[in-house]
Design goal:
The complex is a heterotrimer of chains A (276), B (270) and C (364). Chain B is built from eleven helices and ten strands. Chain B is α/β, with parallel strands linked by helices and 270 residues long. Chain C is mostly helical and 364 residues long. The chains are: A mainly alpha (276), B alpha/beta (270), C mainly alpha (364).
Chain lengths: 276, 270, 364
């Protein structure tokens, strides 16, 4: 455009760099760890909790790999609340199911009608409970201390395709957007007299007229969004420029490999029976 | 830089009839061209064809020649073309990338995709925000903005690509009156600064404000073409399905009521 | 090029062997001190799925080593597919979370997006959609939609995406309306034969011993109820299937049914060992009650999760495939056609207009 230079060149004398709200570092030392490190820790902890089995193992693991970092990160209170909330439905189900429906058990603790609670069942139920809490804790710690966009940017810096990064980031933003759209449609339907509370059947029937418009409405936007992205150079092959990326250090890299090695050793040990 | 369309026609995939026929159009530097016409006349299609999205992204078939400073752009991929011509759409929210937490990152999305050096990305982003007067919104969440500001963010995102020409397809169609005013004023400022824009609008008042030339499309062909003041006052507008600008309607009504046209002209100019 | 495929095949075989050796060594039965409590044979599907993923990774690594990029994989992902995927992921998560948390019915409904992307864009895109869904669902999505167990089942979602992609590529989801009654009857019989055959096989393999659903001597009321329920579901399925087939007169109903049931069975086989070993058979949804019921009947943990899965998954995937079929039917021809596999989802003879004279399509 004739005025293009006037419009898009920076005014002389202005020197604003990347604004500080882009990639703001976290409030604690644990927050400021590289996102890949935190992700590795969460995954290794979750898998180790399963591999270890028993009660002592996962409890020690949770203390070391979840509680301690949570204290450092000053998120312990939120962690406990959120992890329990996450684990609650599963924990309750797991506990009851295993307590009462443990076949082949001998020691009866309680008899409620046709179903019985057994000691073996209780043992197994507690084990599963601890395992689920460990997994919830590890995953929640990651969720509370890491912005998903930060992990995606870090992976992109390491070579993951920007398109995969786009899918991950956009998915995170689309979930609440779609929920909002569903809420709007629900409100509109309710204004037209649709019943949304009540028995299971009513609720199922109530969900159907919302799901259709939400899904089809979202799909209808695909064409517009595709055009808008392509108009912004999205089809250019290769890497794109990043405004910032989370810092990483040799020490953290070492720590990640050490964690993976430890997990591998644990798995091999358990599977081959070396470590009972 | 001039974009020239010579004898251009376009047909959507699977369509029997073409949506555009025999379009001859030059988009030159520093000129704002208004595109008017009833719905389904082909305004959107012309915008898509001029920007290259049709047939690249949208499919379909094209005929005729499109050249950029004389060079045929048929084989240009979309990401190359997007650096020369930017296109904005009606719906502000579907233009958002969905991966930016702040307006700054949203506007930077385009230059980032182009792989331009980081300092350049930042400079372009600030410049684009400044030229639309929205640098104050830099930290806001683009998804949470209302229609008008959101549309400005979308346009800023296009400006950050540093295109030589801007195509805007009914930018105020989905905005409330406040948003419409905001975007109209922004476009007027861009125009005053010498931008090259092709803006399609049903709101002919807006075109009267910013465009120097106006083209009216009807059934895929150019029906009227000329200086804005002339075309927008043309009595055939109504039968072509285009709403006249309010000022023109007012003048017509006043003259019909017996007010002397010359005195009216004098009064309006004053 | 060949090098990559050979490397992938070698990796596939190695992983399977490792898996069989590792898991085959342990006996059945729940042993709290033990880790893998699975017969090698029952976990073969999971091992196969893991091998598939490893083989794919090896293929990608080989391509990266050879060419410094992932061109043959990335080229399957055009902008339109990339735009659809987050929508698909969101549909998966929202519906899946709603069904599991709010409705408590023993199905999942968390694969509609995965199968939709697979059908429109191909196996790799479908697989990635599944993977991203389950991973984000655990690590990144906030409560109340967050699901702790989801990431462990990522591999199931991957395989579902692959199957949907292959089904789409084979043209199974292409509408076939207005077929003659003879064709419909033929298709219907074949589909029913396949489904019934699979059901009978599954019944004898997994439910056979000690299971007397209709036996009046069995005093446990739970089983009589479940038995009748299963019978009812089966009858409803046959009636519904035939009804739908002949009312819509669309032969694709038969294809969709078979695809749904087969996908469901494969998904059940892969997910049961994960559910049993990692979560003790309980993942927080409505399916837990089914597992409990089967354990009450005397099945051990492994068997109970298989039994629950083989009931829930085929029903779930059948419904899911039908929903995808309906969504595809509601999408405009033009919208579908632009997707990588879109042409295979259109009715025959619906292809776009030919290029003639001066009309030309996109060259860039």
């Amino acid at each position: 455009m004739a005025g293009r230079d006037r419009l898009t060149d920076p005014p002389p004398g202005a020197d604003r760099g990347v604004p500080d709200f882009v990639g703001r570092p976290g409030p604690s030392a644990y927050h400021r760890l590289n996102p890949l490190t935190k992700a590795t820790l969460a995954t290794v902890t979750a898998i180790a909790a399963v591999v270890l089995g028993g009660l002592i193992g996962p409890i020690v693991l949770v203390t070391a790999a979840v509680i301690v970092p949570a204290v450092v990160g000053r998120v312990l209170g939120r962690l406990i609340r959120t992890a329990l909330l996450l684990a609650l439905p599963i924990a309750v189900s797991a506990f009851l199911v295993n307590l009462f429906f443990f076949p082949g058990a001998e020691t009866v603790l309680l008899r409620v009608g046709p179903i019985t609670a057994t000691a073996e069942g209780l043992g197994f139920a507690l084990e599963i409970l601890v395992r689920i809490l460990a997994i919830s804790g590890a995953v929640t710690l990651f969720y509370l201390t890491t912005r998903p966009a930060d992990l995606v940017v870090d992976l992109e810096r390491r070579g993951v395709s920007p398109r995969v990064g786009f899918v991950a980031n956009a998915s995170v933003q689309t979930v609440p957007a779609m929920v909002e759209r569903a809420a709007q449609i629900t409100a509109a339907q309710r204004a037209r007299g649709m019943d949304t509370e009540g028995s299971i059947w009513r609720r199922i029937r109530g969900v159907v007229p919302i799901v259709g418009p939400v899904i089809l409405g979202s799909i209808a936007e695909v064409e517009e969004r595709t055009m808008a992205l392509e108009a912004r150079g999205f089809t250019r092959p290769g890497r794109r420029t990043l405004l910032w990326s989370p810092p990483d250090s040799g020490l953290e890299s070492l720590a990640r490999w050490a964690l993976l090695a430890a997990l591998l050793a644990l798995i091999v040990g358990r599977v081959t029976g070396i470590w009972a | 830089m001039t974009i020239s369309l010579e004898g251009v026609g376009y047909r959507y995939a699977g369509a029997t009839r073409p949506s555009l026929l025999e379009i001859d159009l030059d988009l030159a530097d520093g000129v704002v061209i208004g595109l008017a016409g009833p719905s389904e006349a082909g305004k959107t299609t012309l915008c898509l064809v001029a920007s290259g999205l049709a047939p690249r992204t949208v499919g379909g078939q094209i005929r005729g020649r499109i050249t950029l400073d004389g060079e045929d752009i048929d084989a240009w991929p979309m990401h190359r073309l997007s650096q020369r011509i930017g296109i904005g759409f009606q719906n502000p929210s579907t233009q958002l990338s969905q991966v930016a937490a702040t307006v700054f990152e949203e506007v930077a999305f385009g230059p980032m995709n182009l792989g331009v050096a980081r300092d350049e990305v930042v400079a372009r982003t600030w410049a684009a925000l400044d030229s639309l007067g929205i640098d104050g919104l830099a930290e806001r969440d683009p998804q949470r903005l209302s229609g008008g500001p959101q549309q400005l963010v979308a346009i800023a995102g296009l400006l950050a690509m540093r295109p030589e020409h801007l195509v805007l397809d009914e930018p105020t169609a989905q905005l409330d009156p406040a948003g419409t005013r905001l975007v109209a004023e922004a476009i007027a400022r861009l125009a005053a600064d010498g931008a090259s824009i092709l803006v399609a609008e049903q709101k002919t008042d807006l075109l009267a404000e910013v465009a120097s030339t106006v083209i009216v499309l009807a059934e895929g062909r150019i029906a009227l073409r000329g200086p804005a003041s002339q075309v927008l006052a043309d009595p055939r507008l109504v039968e072509l399905g285009v709403a006249e600008p309010a000022a023109i309607r007012l003048r017509r009504a006043a003259v019909a009521a017996g007010v002397d046209d010359d005195r009216l002209k004098g009064a309006l100019r004053g | 090029m060949l090098v990559r495929w050979i490397a992938a095949l070698v990796a596939f075989v190695i992983v399977i062997l490792i898996g069989m050796v590792t898991i085959g060594d342990f006996g059945t039965g729940v042993d709290a001190g033990n880790f893998f409590d699975t017969e090698g044979a029952n976990s073969f599907a999971l091992i196969g799925a893991i091998a598939l993923v490893v083989a794919f990774v090896v293929y990608a690594a080989a391509e990266y080593a050879q060419t410094g990029g992932f061109a043959s994989i990335a080229s399957q992902f055009d902008t339109r597919t990339i735009v659809l995927m987050p929508i698909a992921v969101a549909i998966n998560i929202i519906l899946g979370a709603t069904v599991a948390n709010a409705l408590k019915i023993p199905i999942y409904l968390d694969s509609i997006g995965t199968i939709l992307v697979g059908a429109l864009a191909g196996p790799v895109a479908g697989a990635l959609t599944g993977f991203v869904t389950n991973t984000l669902w655990t690590y990144v999505i906030p409560p109340p939609f967050q699901s702790g167990p989801a990431a462990a089942f990522g591999i199931v979602a991957v395989v579902i995406g692959v199957i949907a992609g292959l089904a789409g590529r084979a043209g199974w989801l292409r509408p076939r309306p207005n077929r003659s009654s003879g064709e419909l009857a033929g298709g219907g019989i074949i589909a029913l034969a396949i489904v019934v055959g699979l059901a009978v096989y599954a019944y004898t393999r997994f439910y056979g011993t000690g299971f007397e659903f209709f036996n009046p001597d069995n005093s446990d009321p739970v089983f009589i109820v479940i038995g009748w329920l299963i019978g009812l579901i089966f009858v409803a399925f046959v009636v519904g299937f035939l009804g739908l087939l002949f009312v819509r007169r669309d032969l694709t109903v038969a294809y969709v049914t078979v695809a749904g049931v087969v996908t469901g069975i494969i998904a059940a086989l892969i997910s049961a060992p994960i559910s049993a070993n990692v979560f003790g058979g309980v993942t927080g949804g409505g399916t837990d009650f089914l597992v409990a019921a089967f354990r009450q009947a005397g099945s051990d943990l492994q068997a109970a999760t298989f039994q629950q899965g083989l009931l829930s998954d085929p029903v779930d995937k059948l419904v899911t495939f039908f929903v995808v079929y309906l969504i595809l039917a509601a999408m405009a021809r033009r919208t579908k056609a632009r997707f990588p596999q879109g042409e295979r989802l259109l009715e025959d003879g619906e292809a776009g207009s030919a290029e003639e004279g001066e009309w030309r399509g996109a060259t860039a």
